[in-house]
Amino acid sequence: MSQDPQSQVLGHLYASALRGAGAAVRLEAVADPVGGLDAGELTVVPGFTGRFLVMFARDSTARSDRAVYWALAGALPEGLAVGDYAMTAEDKPALAVTKATATAWGGTDLPALVRHCAGLTVGGVAGVRVPKTVGRCTLPKLREFGDDAALFAALQARQITAAWTSTADPDVPEGTVLLTDARPALVRAENVVPLYRRNELTEAQLLAINQVAGVLDTEALIDMRRKVADGADPQAVADAFLDEHPLGR
């Protein structure tokens, strides 16, 4: 588990679910959680479908929620398995524009951006990987900013046309328009999902981690990330969420 708020939220959320099913759980902060899982040092690693897929099948062209999930399931090495994914909880790359831009384009989805591909200027936070193309639109070289605050300030100042963020980023300012994806999807899905080692969880424990998918949504993920980023204890945040959204009910 990494130390960023999102990893903390997911780690403690799945840990709480496992404890509720009778497991003795210890959270480990490791640099390479998937490597630790593959090596047998970890039992469960929560994360996102698309990011996991890139680790195991870099050349996969899957984009939709279901396609990415099943591509991931088919790409895992022997000994690893994937639990149920949260259909309503995601953190996929998203492009943000101002309300004025969305109005001028006559749309609030990615196809509107594709139709206005010529002349785009696109920004993102330095070090964060983002798509280089959206549909048939090849994006210009990314303008990099030090953090979300600088990125969205540039967007509001019209220094850039669009800003790369993600659907569960708690720092997206009010009034900013996140362009929704199309069908078929133009950006690879990133739904919350756990990977686990086969034959190491009881039936009740496996059921518990799968039931997380039924109660978690993107708004809750944003809310918990924000609380942890503001200094709240991640275990208390996860426990409070599960108290309000009991598993298996």
TrEMBL record:
Single Gene Ontology MF annotation: transmembrane transporter activity
GO CC entries: ATP-binding cassette (ABC) transporter complex
InterPro entries: ABC_Gly_betaine_transp_sub-bd (IPR007210)
Domain of life: Bacteria
Domain (ABC-type glycine betaine transport system substrate-binding) ranges: 5-115, 148-244
Protein name: ABC-type glycine betaine transport system substrate-binding domain-containing protein
The species this protein was found in: Mycolicibacter heraklionensis
